[in-house]
């Protein structure tokens, strides 16, 4: 009997020691990064949707995912998105989509972004930013209640390991990439003047959403501005015929000018939030310039003409990526052979190769205000 309990003690000791050693290893790994964000909560549209809209409404079909996951992975891309490279950079798992009910793990964050989402309704998707923020509030409340309830049990069930630690919400990085669909929906349904006039309302609502997150305990924000809408092959396809419409890189000038105006106002809103919320940290990320740098140097960087896209097809009307059509014996809609040579995957969404190029440049802070790497986004800029 005595001997048995010693054995037990010994085994227990090894277990504790082992866990402690493991914990230390994890800690020092994280310790090499200044902030050690334990989680990421993301809000946005298809640029950062890792499976939300695919689970909720429109399943994303092959060949999406072919380059990296080997199967459709809820992303409108052949592989990883910028948000996936953010997760890799922070040494966290890829984010599960909040709306996905199969195989999800929210221990290190959740993704509320869904394809087609805009800041404000109406739009292409019911899951506008306001809805995403409500979902986060509910997620936080319910996961905290469940965590606390399960922690009282002596035998902790497995499900607890998929839940966020309540104390980690305020240490997490909150990332936002949204607004592109407000502009493109505006261009489709209203005049250019109306789109311009709508910008203060859109950026105002985005800023309001950040205030709500702050009230919920969020402190660290990483805000992407909107990309060069006029360089998306779909914008170009529909607008290239109007004379004088394209710039020297083949992008629709007007759409890009409006996107830049949106970004000026967004940057201004973020500056105001900084003074309004001195205990929060904001990094404004100029994704527009990173994407435009890629597009204007595409050929030098080994990409094909950035107006071409890899998946889906256009010959008078377009066939979405994942669909095929046979016209006069010719099959349209097959993906290209080398997605990594295309900036655009499907005419709207960037390829994994493009996302990687952009991520490599934005994550080290070279397109950010303040210019700090994402791992340091909890701090004031270091004095030089
Ligand atoms: C298919 O064939 C018809 C009849 O020859 C022709 O009018 C039409 O333009 C063709 N369509 C395409 C997409 O080639
Ligand atoms: C960030 O990374 C890019 C690509 O590797 C590099 O060209 C750039 O100089 C880096 N910037 C900083 C501030 O480290």
TrEMBL record:
Pfam families reported for this sequence: Lipase_GDSL (PF00657)
Gene Ontology terms for molecular function: hydrolase activity, acting on ester bonds
Signal peptide as annotated in the record: 1-28
Entry keywords, A to Z: Glycoprotein, Hydrolase, Signal
Recorded superkingdom: Eukaryota
Family label: Belongs to the 'GDSL' lipolytic enzyme family.
Protein name in UniProt: GDSL esterase/lipase At3g27950
Gene: LOC111292249
């Amino acid at each position: 009997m005595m001997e048995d309990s010693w054995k037990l003690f010994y085994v227990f000791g090894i277990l504790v020691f082992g866990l402690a050693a493991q914990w230390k290893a994890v800690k020092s790994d994280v310790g090499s990064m200044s902030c050690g964000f334990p989680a990421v909560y993301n809000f946005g549209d298809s640029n950062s949707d890792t499976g939300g809209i695919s689970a909720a409404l429109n399943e994303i079909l092959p060949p999406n995912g072919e380059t990296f996951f080997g199967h459709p992975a809820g992303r409108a891309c052949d592989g990883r998105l910028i948000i996936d490279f953010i997760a890799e950079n922070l040494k966290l798992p890829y984010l599960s989509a909040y709306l996905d009910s199969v195989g999800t793990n929210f221990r290190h964050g959740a993704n509320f972004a869904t394809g087609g989402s805009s800041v404000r309704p109406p739009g292409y998707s019911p899951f506008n930013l306001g809805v995403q923020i409500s979902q986060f509030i509910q997620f936080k409340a319910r996961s905290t209640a469940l965590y606390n309830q399960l922690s009282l049990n002596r035998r902790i069930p497995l499900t607890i390991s998929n839940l966020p630690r309540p104390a980690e919400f305020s240490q997490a990085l909150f990332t936002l990439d949204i607004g592109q669909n407000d502009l493109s929906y505006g261009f489709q349904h209203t005049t250019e003047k109306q789109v311009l006039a709508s910008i203060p309302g859109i950026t105002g609502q985005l800023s309001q959403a950040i205030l709500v997150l702050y009230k919920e305990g969020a402190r660290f924000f990483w805000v992407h501005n909107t990309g060069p809408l006029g360089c998306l092959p779909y914008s170009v396809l529909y607008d290239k015929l109007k004379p004088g419409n394209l710039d020297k890189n083949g992008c629709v000038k007007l759409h890009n000018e409006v996107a830049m105006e949106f970004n000026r106002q967004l940057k201004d809103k973020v500056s105001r939030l900084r003074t309004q919320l001195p205990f929060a940290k904001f990094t404004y990320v100029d994704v527009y310039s990173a994407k435009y740098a890629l597009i204007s140097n595409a050929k030098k960087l080994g990409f094909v003409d950035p107006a071409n896209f890899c998946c889906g097809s256009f010959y008078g009307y377009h066939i979405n990526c994942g669909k095929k059509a046979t016209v006069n014996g010719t099959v349209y809609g097959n993906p290209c052979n080398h997605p990594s040579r295309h900036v655009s995957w499907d005419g709207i969404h960037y390829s994994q190769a493009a996302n990687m190029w952009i991520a490599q440049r934005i994550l080290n802070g070279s397109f950010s205000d303040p210019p700090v790497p994402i791992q340091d986004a909890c701090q004031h800029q270091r004095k030089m």
